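Ticket opened by: R.M.
Priority: normal
Category: complex prediction / small molecule

The reporter submitted a protein together with pyridoxal-5'-phosphate and asked that the result be attached to this ticket for the collaborator who will pick it up next week. Submitted input follows.
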Amino acid sequence: MSQWQELAQRYFMNTVKRLPVTLVKGEGARAWDENGREYLDFVAGWAVNSLGHCPPVVVEAIVEQAHTLIQASNQFYTIPQIHLAELLIQNSCLDKVFFCNSGAEANEGAVKLARRYGKRYRDGAYEVITTMDSFHGRTLAMVAATGQPKFQQPYVPLAAGFVNVEYNNIEAIKAATTSQTCAIMLEPLQGEGGVNLVNENYLAAVRDWCDQKGILLILDEIQTGVGRIGTLFAYEQYSVEPDMMTLAKGLASGIPIGAILAKDRASVFVPGEHGSTFGGNPVACAAGYATLKFIIDNDIAGNARRVGQYFVTRLEQLKQKFQFITEVRGCGLLIALEFSSDIGDSVVKACLDGGLLVNRVKPNALRFMPPLTIGNGEVDEALGILDKALSSIAS
Ligand SMILES: Cc1ncc(COP(=O)(O)O)c(C=O)c1O
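Result attached by the on-call engineer:
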């Protein structure tokens, strides 16, 4: 254990089982540790570094904004916030935006907005239906929204007002809907739950059900949005428009940001009902604008789609070679590789030794979420390291 890691052990709360690597520098799809060792980074700040580490266009925007205005209260207008809002609205099906600081905070705000909608239009309805194996964040209410017992059990009693039902099962949603339901909140692809793809007609069926019942559809695109799965937003692939969408992660290249977007008719907050000190701060919004503009102008989502397809093809070849690979699944550059047994930790360790950073999303599955700017060359390089890692485990 290095000197840094010993200090961290002494001072940090015990919330994360960290890998024994201290990263000190990043550039593009590469990161370096304190000993100067280089890694190919297919974790990318947990699906955050859309344009790779320290993309010059974003660094410049941050530096310029930091020299100009770092923070102003939301009592005042600030220009970077307006620029980012306009870019998001012009490029999505939503009409209004609220900025905050993280994914969980965006989802909390979306649920508050849904409750306000329920009070105004649905006789005080407040319940939100979410799905099993979902992930919506770590705040107390989002733990109740997240349909995974391991995140819920340490914190019972859970916040009221959430019902967790089976994913990809429209009948389960219908059965759970009552006069108290104000919204359904879903991920268009469950990232943290194991890269679980949505069935082809599921989102359209949920949309129809929401329309029939007059309830809101909230899409949590915190992981799927901003190009990650091959379109700017995941909903575009399913021809379904949400009433609300939440974003965070890849929006500002690593500067903390979150956003709630809503259709006009769902945008029912009035002044004083919601807020944030740091939300929409000029530096985060300048980083967000530079990131999103680059993604749109350079069709980075298209690159994620094409390179993602190549990645999946190469992983399928690996599946032919190693019997213990049971499944390759994913969309764009959010991809999982599943094994027949719980070897995920050993594979992550062997990859680390080979110079590749990957995530173990389940005990028996890896997740790849590299920068959206990588090319086939980086995929080949990663696959070379992975192949060796799997061979070492197989032998
Ligand atoms: C789909 C989804 N929603 C919400 C969150 C929570 O975001 P944050 O960690 O920024 O609070 C995550 C984080 O992984 C996520 O993947």
